Amino acid sequence: MSLNIHSHLQGISAFVHAVETGSFTAAAARMGVSKSATGKSVARLEERLGIRLLDRTTRSLNLTAEGQAYYQSCLKVLEELNTAEALLASRTRVVSGTLRINLPISFGRLCVMPVLAEVADGNPDLNLDISFTDRQVDLVEEGFDLAVRLGDPGDHASLIGRRIGTQRSIICAAPAYLDRRGRPTVVEELVKHDCLAFAKDGRPLPWAVCGSDGTVKLVIIQPRHTISHGEALRDATVKGLGVAYLSTWLAADDLHSGRLEVVPISTPAEDGPITALWPRSRDLAPKVRVVVDALVEALKPTQVTVS
């Protein structure tokens, strides 16, 4: 029985590497075996399954329709094996090495850095290489072990994601501004106000609001001021420059202190997920797992209570 399992895994591994590299020669080099052995492993796999997985030419390998479906199944099997091995390894291996992690600018500094500091303090053999940007980096191409993203993490076959929290956004302003300009109660009244927008890639992001029937709609506001840095946007709002749409993790202290006031225009209870992402092609090393687990634990209360 064990011989059959070993043979099956050999064939699956050779097949997946051949698809990813585009040739038996490159797959063999990656696996550390001969080109002949790799080709034979795939041939035996096809014979056992009774289907042709790859169309071979002198220059390339191409997946058949059946091969494409089988390839996706193989990825899931290998992912489960990698996860199981990483889980066992994480129980015995010391958390060590350099972790390259990419974070959103404001959220990373305010919410993630305190967690990373605690993890680093408890793991003296762990080194952190942290970068901050609000653009979506390519983890594989740019060599990151881990990234944290706000909102839609995107659909990337090369990445694995774990939801580590959720965020909520509210419409708010400084009490002095609202005393001077009035308190809007419906989104249509915002045209009479100075609105402050967060800009991403040079474009103001829409605000999500709830209609009277509870449906959520995205509203494109016409901002007086556009700011592409979260903390600077919050600071401008506290100073009374206008009305802003801020995440509660960013505005929490100012809301509690009274420096900011919630504008009574309803927004969704959840604005979007907070996700940790790492490359599918790499094992979930202990250095990655310890940070992800710490973030899950720390970011449970990512919202503040607002009326």
TrEMBL record:
Query: What GO molecular-function term can you cite, just one?
Result: DNA binding
Q: Name one Pfam family in it.
A: LysR_substrate
Extract the PROSITE patterns matched here. HTH_LYSR
Tell me the ranges covered by the HTH lysR-type domain, including all copies.
Answer: 9-64
Q: State the InterPro entries in the record.
A: LysR-type_TF_proteobact-type (IPR058163), LysR_HTH_N (IPR000847), LysR_subst-bd (IPR005119), WH-like_DNA-bd_sf (IPR036388), WH_DNA-bd_sf (IPR036390)
> What top-level branch of life does the organism fall under?
Bacteria
Task: Say yes or no: keyword Chaperone present.
Answer: no
Is NAD given among the entry's keywords?
no
Recorded hits in CDD domains, A to Z, give: PBP2_CrgA_like_6
Q: Keywords in UniProt for this one? A: DNA-binding, Transcription, Transcription regulation
Q: What family does this chain come from, according to its entry?
A: Belongs to the LysR transcriptional regulatory family.
What this protein is called in its record is: HTH-type transcriptional regulator DmlR
**Natural source organism:** Methylobacterium bullatum
The UniProt gene name for this protein comes to dmlR_2
